[in-house]
């Protein structure tokens, strides 16, 4: 036992951890090809897969609101630290002041962790801690409990029809107490802030990844071919309303929504490439003016943004999958995969909290239960929300007066981002009819490094589920 009273881990455990670390990094160095045949994947993709697989094995499905098993928690923190330690050696030169012995000051260049990693890795670690602490808050006796699906009918609780594989939730006959509702709503608000931040980081990293040549070569020559005549006409009309476009589109299944997302992203890439194309004789040439093409591209981005907000449970698109698989930047790979798994866990935890609030709502008013239920974030897209869920959303308290959100915890401000999102969604025409577009588009993939704070207008983007 050590001097401070803590138990010293046995030598066998220390050796075991060292061997485990050697095994993990040997697989990364060989690109997951332990045969040594040289058929492994890139280091970036190997690290991305390692973080994804670790999260899947540690967190699993997270079927209940309960603290993590201590052994799984220790394993997660330990192995994540190993994988994130790679970013300590991704550096860049920055100017610094050095003072010599005679008192003179001179400017020199020193190495520092790359700016995007320096800002976002600590932020992701805080989000990680916040999520695990949220689960730990559900230890001890709770007013609700989980009942197996195989239990007697009298013992069964409430569960949504689209979550038949989860245990049912049993709440007191008179419903949850006011204090319990406030506690659940406070936890939901905190997890929602974690979800927003991780989605923003993930979206920013993906936007900075280069578009692979293989994806570009698979694209048609123009946006009309990608979208189809009907959708192309809907986007290029004189007076454009993105909400009406989505109402007219067939969004009856996850497959159709994902197909629309793929088409919209492909058309955006095509139009952006045409706007930066310099060779008039290229096959990318077109009779459509740059101003109109830029307007079409902005309209398509608005549709894409609304799709990501309205259907947060979508799998990754073809463009995103292609970027992740062909990415060679180890820093981007770690940021993308770490933010993605945190996004997935935050989404699942918030969904479990909503399940309890939904059960409480039905207990208070059973007549609200109807078959048509909004699929939650970890299920396929479908109808908006049932009347029962509308009711508990209206009745749910906004949190205790002294509650501290993630914004307070980390010093963030999401108000500006929310205002930007409302401004984007409220505009029917992206540009006024008589306003000439003079701004030029940015490059498709920028190398400039930003943190999530530079791009918080993307707070409604990513799909946390169905991506592992």
Automatic annotation (TrEMBL):
PROSITE patterns: PRONE. Residues 372-401 are annotated as: Disordered. Residues 8-370 form the PRONE domain. Keywords: Guanine-nucleotide releasing factor. One of its GO terms (molecular function) is guanyl-nucleotide exchange factor activity. This is Rho guanine nucleotide exchange factor 8-like. It comes from Heracleum sosnowskyi. It comes from the Eukaryota.
